[in-house]
Write a structure and sequence with these properties.
The complex is a heterodimer of chains A (about 80) and B (about 120).
Chain A (H helix, E strand, L loop, with lengths): L2 H15 L2 H16 L17 E3 L5 E3 H5 L4 E5 L5
Antiparallel strand pairs in A: 1-2
Chain B lengths: L1 E4 L3 H11 L4 E4 L4 H5 L3 E3 L2 H9 L4 H5 L5 E3 L2 E5 L5 E6 L9 H17 L1
The chains are: A alpha+beta (about 80), B alpha+beta (about 120).
């Protein structure tokens, strides 16, 4: 199954379970982001990626330069495991 | 492949072990790196209440009480540090297919090998 199909199934399940009022607030929040202008201020294709040095799961500091020394990088930002 | 999350290191470690993930997962306290990428998101008050009702304790997970999150983002960065592809979404339930990302990587590597 495609990832997006799995996510759509998850979303359907959540919509069946969650209170209507909570769902409305969540949908409104998503719409607010779309209309906030925030998406026009993100990094864009062609930009230099901002540098970072962050702690990994072993307690080591890993920088963007470290990661790029191994070749092209797929970088994902993730909210959290809840 | 690397992932950046505002979660405290211990939660990233738990996720890595549980899902058996081979890539780096980096902790971004206070979403400071997300901010530099223009994707730091301040949750509104009503949404904070909903998350709290669901038992999602974002401050405990992230180690700060800012109630900020990164917008979900997937970037492809070339070895010179230039962003070659960006998928950034307002809706965390809309994400690019992993297969499409792999295909884009293949195209990038082919281009790099031509020079």
């Amino acid at each position: 199954m495609k990832l997006q199909e799995k996510m759509d199934a998850y979303k359907k399940g959540m919509r069946a379970k969650a209170p209507k009022e909570a769902l409305e607030i969540m949908l409104r929040a998503t719409e607010a982001i779309k209309h906030s202008g925030m998406l026009e201020k993100t990094v864009k294709v062609g930009d230099k990626a901002p540098a970072f040095s962050l702690e990994n799961t072993s307690g080591d500091i890993v920088s963007l330069a470290n990661l790029l020394s191994k070749g092209p990088l797929v970088l994902a930002f993730y909210r959290g495991k809840w | 492949m690397a992932e950046i999350s505002p979660q405290a290191v211990k939660f990233n470690r738990a996720m890595q072990e549980e899902k058996n993930l081979a890539f780096e997962i980096l902790s971004d306290p206070g979403n400071k790196t997300a901010e530099r990428y223009g994707i730091k998101y301040q949750m509104p008050e009503d949404l904070i209440k909903v998350y709290s009702q669901f038992g999602l304790n974002v401050p405990e997970h992230n180690g700060d009480d800012s109630w900020t999150l990164p917008l979900p983002a997937r970037l492809i960065i070339d070895p010179d540090g230039i962003i070659r592809d960006a998928e950034i979404s307002a809706d965390y339930t809309v994400r690019p297919e992993p297969e499409d990302t792999l295909e884009k990587l293949r195209v990038l590597v082919d281009q790099m090998n031509q020079f």
